[in-house]
Each structure stands twice: as C-alpha cells, then as structure tokens.
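Example S7 (structure tokens).
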C-alpha cells in the first residue's frame, strides 16, 4: 500500500488531488486543516492536508515501482541463464531463494516507509492539538506496533487504532453518582478557575432535572462575592446553604442535613504556592471519611503550571477532574496530558457561564477525534 500526502486551499481540493493522481481506488485516510509554516503564516489562509492510501498494482506503476519490476526481471533472467549454463538444479534453487529474499526486503521497506509516513502525519496532529511530545510519541509508537503485528499492515486502520488508544488513555469517565447514603462532594482548585459556578451548574442539574434533595455548604469565607453568588443560586433553586469556617463546623452542618441526598461543598480558591492555605484545605477535607473530591482546573492554564498545581494537591488520594473554560481553547491536549500525568478519572467539562446549560460529561470519543485532526 502506498501512502501519500496532498494539500489544497480546501478539504475538497486536497482530496480531489489525491483522487486525480492515485485513481478511483484511493482511500482518504484523513484530512486536516493546517496553519502555514513560518512567521507570516498566521497572516495567511490555512491549507488543508489529506493523507491518502492506494494499493499498488502493476497496471498503475510509478517510476520507483518500474525500477523494482526491472530489478525482479533481471534477477529472473540471471537465474534462468545460470541454470542453463551450469545445468544445476541446486544453483537454480539458490537463485530462487535469493530472489524471494529480495522481494521480502522490498516489501518490508515499503511497509516501514508507510508506517513512518502515517506516524509522522498523526504525530504532527497530536502536537498541534497540545499533546505533550512524550505522550504523542508513545501513542504513535503503540499504534505502529499494532498495525504491524496485529493488523497485518492494514494502514486504513491507523486512525481508528490511534483513536482507540487515546480513548484507553482517557479512561472511564466518572461523573457524580447518587448512592444510598448521603453524598458529600468537595470542589477544590486554584483561584479563578470557576469552582463556584461549576458547583451551581451541578446543583441546578440535580435539583431541577433529577429532583434530588440538595444542600450547599461554602467554606469560601475569604471571598464575599463567592458567598453572595451561592446565596443567589440557593434562593433560585430553593435549596439550603450554610457557611462554615472550620472542619468541626462541617460535621455539625452535615448532621443537620441527614435528609439530603447530595451535599455540595464549595472551598476557597487556594494558590498552589500558598502552603498554609493548602494545609487548611487538607484539614477540612480529611475531617470526613465518606466524601468525593473534584479538582477543578482551567483548560486555559499552561500545562507546566498545571503540573505544579496538581503536585500541591497530592495529599488527596482519590479525586476526579473537572475542566472549565473549554470554550476558550481550541486544543484538547491539556485533557489528555492531565489524565496521563495524574491517572485520575475525568468527569465534566464546562463551556461557558450559563447555569445549568454549560456543563457536560467528558466525551472521550469527541476528544480523540479532535486530537488526531478528524473533521
């Protein structure tokens, strides 16, 4: 199978070029929008790149293929002449084995070249979509190995296998589930990521759509605006809200919320560089045995900073991840990077300020398609 790349000013143009050159049997494996390279590229229109494959046939041979065919014919002639001159079946058999080895080596070279072309193409897509180099290389290498060893060099499967590998890395999505006992959910994270709004969205969904018995607690006594914001939501949703100042108060409040199925706890935003505030948060969270913790992160934060933030929350054994502000980014690589780095389950993404609409459970199929550059 021959793998080729074509470009054009539109997806249709690049795909048509592939069809014109490779014929009607061509298989379009992937088409992506690509920024032009160079400093001035951002001021010019994007181009579209198509990766296409076609089975190689003798009736449609290119220059390189003709050279291979000529080589095969020369080997065949040489084998025949030697057999006649020496009248030796043994010599003829040796030549035949050499000929077969030559064909195998040519075939292996074509496979390797095609795997490299496919790998390079999708590696660029992953990097352009914000996936870290180490993770992108690992995914491509895994996919190439599967194509070669499990799928008998069926290159048409490359995008599908790569997407499946990404989905496996993203893992099982774990949103909030209501259990029989009282469910206490803590929302933690750095300042400015949108914890309070995210909590309000989830509260609205469970109170309005699912008709669950909800209560709110806020431990964010550092920001008056955050308390006032929650008060407004609690009044609109007609659910109780209590303010607490330390770990002991949380236990007292929860004892009065025995009839509530879901208690959502808002915590103060802590700078990952302020260890004293992190210690305060640890005291509050560790005061309860039965709870769930959701770490809220902004998708707009550089991943090098996210790694430092995550390290500061390593005192929590089990937590799930919510990404906010996904409407402000074009690249989903930060989700895959964070999942790879933490090995913690993903849960929700938020895409705006509207309550309760702008929150969704993470869709790993959508993310995997975006990361490999599928339309």
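Recovered sequence:
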């Amino acid at each position: 199978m021959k793998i080729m790349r074509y470009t054009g000013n539109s997806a249709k143009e690049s795909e048509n070029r592939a069809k014109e050159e490779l014929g009607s049997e061509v298989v379009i494996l992937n088409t992506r929008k690509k920024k032009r390279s160079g400093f001035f590229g951002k001021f010019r229109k994007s181009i579209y790149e198509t990766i296409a494959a076609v089975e190689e046939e003798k009736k449609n041979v290119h220059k390189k293929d003709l050279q291979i065919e000529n080589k095969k014919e020369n080997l065949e002639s040489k084998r025949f002449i030697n057999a006649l001159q020496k009248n030796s079946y043994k010599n003829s058999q040796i030549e035949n084995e050499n000929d077969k080895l030559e064909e195998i080596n040519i075939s292996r070279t074509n496979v390797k070249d095609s795997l490299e072309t496919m790998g390079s193409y999708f590696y660029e897509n992953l990097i352009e979509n914000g996936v870290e180099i180490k993770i992108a290389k690992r995914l491509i290498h895994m996919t190439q190995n599967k194509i070669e060893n499990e799928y008998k060099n069926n290159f048409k499967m490359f995008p599908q296998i790569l997407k499946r590998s990404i989905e496996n890395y993203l893992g099982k999505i774990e949103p909030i589930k209501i259990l029989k006992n009282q469910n206490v959910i803590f929302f933690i994270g750095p300042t400015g990521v949108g914890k309070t709004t995210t909590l309000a969205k989830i509260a609205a969904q469970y109170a309005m759509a699912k008709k669950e018995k909800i209560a709110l607690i806020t431990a964010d006594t550092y920001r008056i605006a955050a308390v006032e914001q929650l008060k407004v939501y609690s009044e609109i949703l007609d659910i109780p809200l209590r303010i607490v100042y330390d770990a002991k108060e949380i236990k007292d409040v929860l004892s009065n919320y025995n009839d509530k199925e879901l208690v959502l706890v808002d915590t103060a935003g802590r700078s990952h560089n302020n260890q004293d505030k992190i210690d305060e948060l640890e005291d509050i969270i560790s005061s309860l045995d039965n709870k769930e913790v959701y770490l809220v992160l902004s998708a707009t934060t550089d991943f090098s900073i996210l790694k430092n933030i995550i390290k500061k929350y390593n005192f929590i054994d089990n937590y799930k991840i919510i990404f906010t502000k996904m409407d402000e980014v074009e690249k989903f690589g930060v989700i895959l990077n964070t999942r790879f780095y933490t090995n913690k389950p993903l849960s929700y993404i938020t895409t705006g300020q509207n309550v309760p609409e702008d929150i969704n459970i993470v869709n790993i199929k959508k993310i995997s398609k975006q990361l490999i550059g599928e339309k």
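Notes on this example. The chain has two domains: 89-170, 183-372.
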